Amino acid sequence: MGEVTGVAWETPRAKRLFLEVPGWEGHKAGQHVDLRLTVEDGYQAERSYSIASAPEEDGRIELLIERLEDGEVSPYLTDELRAGDGLELRGPVGGWFTWLAKEGGPLLLVAGGSGIVPLMAMVRHRAAAGSDTPTRLLYSSIKTERFGPTEG
Amino acid sequence: MTEGFVSRGFTGRRRSQDTALPPGQYLVEGFPVLSAGPTPHTPLEEWDFSIVGEVDEPKRWTWEEFRQLPSEEITTDIHCVTKWSKLGTTWEGVSVDTLLEGIETAAEYVTAFCEGDYTTNLPLEEITGGKAWVANAYEGEPLEPEHGGPARLLVPHLYFWKSAKWVRGLQLTSYDIPGFWESLGYHNYGDPWREQRYWGD
Question: A143 or B145, which is more confident?
Fold first, then answer.
């Protein structure tokens, strides 16, 4: 069970969620979490979201949620959820699409839209680990509704 | 997970249909393509399918021989571990029972092996008795490479990573050998109705 500690719109379509998760044992860049939402009558919906933060960022994880107009879950996460709310999650999940700085490179990262998120974790991890692995990021995004992060 | 937790302000969107989905799944209209690695493109004249391992005599079919085997139409629901489901998908393929006909074995497990070194493991009894096929067509058309063509394993009662794309054979074994995703944290068995997504579920 995680708690939302902060939310912030990154672009008109993408929202950062900061979560504190007691007992979180860390993650590898590229992994994701499974979120589960529950209605009073017991109806549940589950979705996966990649972790945007580097493993080095202690104590909290960051997700970057793309708001899908016809989505069942994403509009709730971006429009409704606020600091103090609980959010059920499990993770980290994913043993294949990960990168550790000690694996070296060179690294070619390619993403479109919200696919940038696991790569953000990798880039941040690279910086936090002080790695000088040659890295290139190729990113494609719809021009008028930019999803991706502004910072490097 | 936490008993009785309710997400403040979440209403969800229930479907009107009667058909229940396994826990945590949602319906999609398209047919997502997920793959670890590039899509292989095997020329049919190079394709073959084999039954090997703990059998008296290995069996092998070329594409032409495979297409001569009796095949059936299958209409079924499919469920991906990444949470999407499709109901009523239609396929054409050869039942694994047909492929295993006449084969005597004491093996209890099978490893499906594929182009590109992908493998997945199953108990032998999960692919026999009308539960699995080697499928070469989807929605009336030859199976496209990105969806596993020319032929993929089809085991719809388990999460769809067990329906190995680009399958080239079955290895019958006495020991259960975790395959590609099973070795990377995914559940060894993968029953969607018990939500067996990851090891330990």
Answer: B145
CA angle, corner B197, sides to B191 and B201, nearest 5? 90
B185 and A CB contact within 8 Å = yes
The two tokens of residue B27 are: 């319906």
**Do you know the residue count of chain B?**
201
- Picking from B119, B82, B162, B160, the residue whose alpha carbon sits closest to that of residue A93 is B82
| Interface touch B9/A48, C-beta < 8 Å | no
Interface mutation vs chain A, best among B7, B11, B79, most A CBs within 10 Å: B7
Task: Report the DSSP beta bridge partners of residue B170.
Answer: B51, B112
Q: What is the pLDDT of residue B84?
A: 97
Nearest to A39 among B12, B24, B184 (CB): B12
Number of structural domains chain A divides into: 1
Q: Is the pLDDT of residue A127 over 50?
A: yes
What domains can be seen in chain B, in order of their start residue?
Answer: 46-194 (3.90.420.10)
Contact present, B78 and B85 (Cβ < 8 Å) = yes
Confidence of residue B3 (pLDDT cuts 50, 70, 90): low
* pLDDT category of residue A146 using cuts at 50, 70 and 90: low
Whether the Cβ atoms of residue B143 and residue B171 lie closer than 8 Å to each other: no
pLDDT (mean) for B127-142: 98
Phi and psi dihedrals of A111, rounded to 5? Answer: -150, 160
Whichever domain contains A105, its CATH number is: 2.40.30.10
Positive or negative torsion for Cα A131, A134, A138, A143: positive
pTM for this entry: 0.90
